[in-house]
Specification:
455 residues, 4-stranded antiparallel β-sheet, Alkaline Phosphatase, subunit A
Amino acid sequence: MLKTLILLISLGAFAGAAEKPNVIIFFIDDLGYSDISPFGSKDIPTPNLDRLAKEGVICKDTYVTNPPCCPSRVSLIMGMYGQRFGKYGMSRGLPIPEDKDNMAKFMNRHGYITGQIGKWDIGSKKQTAINIGFKEVLQTPPKKIYKKSEVKAKNKYSKTGKSKFICINQKGEEQWLTDYDGDRCIEWIEKHKDKPFFMYFSPEAVHSSNIEATEELKKRSTVKDKKRVHLAAAIVSVDDQVGKMLDTLDRLKLREKTLFIFSSDNGPNLGEGGTALPYRGGKGGGTQQVGWTLSPTIISRPGTIPQGKVYDGMMCTLDFYATIAAQIGAEKPTHLDGVDVTPYLQGKKSGDAHNFLFWDNSDPTDAERRNMLAVRWKDWRLYKKYKKDDWQLFDLKKDPQEKKDVASSNPEVISNMLAAYKKWQKGNVPVKKVPKNSNDDPKRGTGHQWMTSEK
């Protein structure tokens, strides 16, 4: 009898562990807020993202609090504002805190196999994906080298002849990099289908330049603009990978057991025709407007998160870590600035997930165009470029293009937002300098192998 009881308890514990949901974060580079069809795009078809949206929740007001690429990814993986550890801008090579669990370490501690594919751009040179906690990391495949006769006069890669998005796969054949990464992601999911897994899939797409986009990809959109047509092709390929993943999860009967988060590290690349409509702003000349900080986000887990819904409340990419912790039944680390948005997505709570969100891009070593201080509260955006400037105030509901500064007629609004901003600043540390010889991109080697933490 006692042996039977122990066996039943053991089986129950095993079954409980097996019910832990898988987690996929699909994090795109420079994807514009309105450049996929669930967020209003009419000229770039993304049927698989439409499908993901139908199987989940469109998060209409999701922000990146530490744009652009490097700080955005750092704050995502740590679940906290970069300013908490001295990151106020790009500061590529600045170490991430090692006295706090990053997302990979956290998932490892809770019994997950963790994998990463694609762009890293996090931490110091020594803080590779493997070294900060991921158990399996895919090498970067070799890239195509163009012959001089193949290099076009305006091709960005004319000096080296090295391709950005055409790689050489395991068969020695040329393949679009995003497609290759997607295939390897499917391979990894199939390998680990019987255990809880966490995949951080962060392809180089759709970062510029997409000039190499194939004719096959380009003709799948209705874009006529000569710049935007290349971006559209890259987005179509991203959508293909979403479809592959969903098909695989369905085939393996893992769909309801998988939390799927789709998002972007910052707003659109305006130079390639990216858009953030109805808002203004983006990478390049639009880093002062709200469009640079908005990310098209979809969160899906059928059976746990409602399907075909829209959440209009204000949230941010910091919330992904806290939401994952709640979904896997774990207590979230105390250092997190993000919140669990599950009850908001389920309709159990209403309104904004955050009363306020904050920005402080004031690293003196960063590019001047990226300087920005801002606060979001309700429909308001308080903003200035430099600390010496006067604050400007915009009502994003009435004025999404931020054309009319209404600061002079709303002193109480400004006072309330500044009080919250000053309170937030007290939890930050001063700007930290990047250690010498620490600003190189972490290297993972070129090849087709999975690097493992055991080696």
